[in-house]
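Quick one before lunch.
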Amino acid sequence: MINRLPLPLAKYYVVFGLGMLLVCLVIAFSFACLRSEPTPYVWHLPPGFPEPPVPPDNPMTVEKVELGRHLFYEKQLSGNGLQSCASCHQQELAFTDGVAMPVGSTGQVVNRNSMSLVNVAYSSHFTWAHNGLANLEQQILIPLFNEQPVEMGLTGAQERVLAALASDKQYQALFAKAFPEAKSITMDNVVKALACFVRSIVSFRSAFDRYAYYGDDSALSEQALEGLALFMSERLECRHCHSGFNFADTSQHASEKGEPDAFHVTGLYYPLGSSLQPQLQSVLAGIEVDRGLYHVSGVETDKDRFRAPSLRNIAVTAPYMHDGSIQSLEEVLDFYSSAGRPAIYDGFGDGRLHPHKSLFIKGFSLTEAEKAALMAFFLSLTDNDVLSEARWSQPRND
Ligand code: HEC
Ligand code: HEC
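Model of the heme C complex:
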């Protein structure tokens, strides 16, 4: 026998139950709206062009890229509150800074030239001479926390910076959208968002790209085409190290895995001891001569080996080389023509005689017309969209 409730009471239970159900649905719905699924990122690539590799634990989303953009331009992210990533990586200069060596947040000179970030998403190696950084997430820890030299100078200031971000209404909203699962703002997520933003700076819209990837035969002038042919020639050998779609032998796309032979001695200089470069002594007090990959590997034959950087937007990224010691592209051509550089500092040997110099740096002579053709080719690598497009620019704070 089932015990029946008196009818009026049963009705009351049904109405109450339905009411509760409705309340639950409304709560669940508002949570779903607040914690909406992040929007997958769409790459803007030439037709059929492969996407860059992305680490599985930091997929690209529109929300993370947007948060990363704010953080990239955020001065609070530095020890002194005066410097952001953009201080050394300015959009209009293809994310370089126009100086030979930048100054970090403690006023200390960073002994290397700021690198362009365009298409760095495709890089298999990062910085001028490092073979142990697996991805951008690892690389970005260096400018944030490095102490020798100091760049952003976050070491010791981390708690203060995270608290500042957590008390800012705009960042509360941006972090909630980018990391809906996270309970608080963490440095790990700051780095992930920055990596997503930097990874998004991908662009293939230079005159060279229109010619090479969009089938526009008229995009390059006769002169630029002649320059391209020279660049690819056996006489100049540029393509051996500046190869592929980024003109760097350390680029890979999502379906590629490989360990290219990425570090080269170009004969830029040949330090004989570990003495300071005398001309730079006053500014670089305490900094040793830069021996490239050797600082990371400790292998004697890695001394003075550096990565061939991408040549995209090369016309706007002067001065050149890891130490910013070459001012113009004409001088870069002179440097390669003479198969390296004679001793420019006291106590240095002749760069051209460096025992580990690459066999591809063997010198050549160029006519004025050939030089002009190479310059026209370099200019064709400038992508004005990436230098000016709003989505990579400083966000308005509203
Ligand atoms: C004080 C100037 C300075 C600041 C600030 C700075 N960078 Fe850099 N960046 C450099 C220099 C110099 C290099 C080359 C470092 C090396 O070779 O050791 C570099 C290299 C890089 C690279 C590697 C590029 C490549 O092609 O391998 C990335 C990525 C990068 N920086 C991102 C950032 C981000 C993100 C921030 C902000 C968190 C930042 N940087 C802040 C100067 C700076
Ligand atoms: C053996 C490999 C190799 C060859 C061949 C080579 N390069 Fe390079 N290139 C490099 C490396 C490595 C660097 C960085 C050197 C440094 O900073 O110490 C570099 C730097 C450059 C830079 C400066 C990039 C910047 O952002 O500062 C330009 C421009 C350049 N090369 C153009 C050329 C041209 C043009 C040729 C052919 C005439 C050529 N390279 C041949 C390896 C090579």
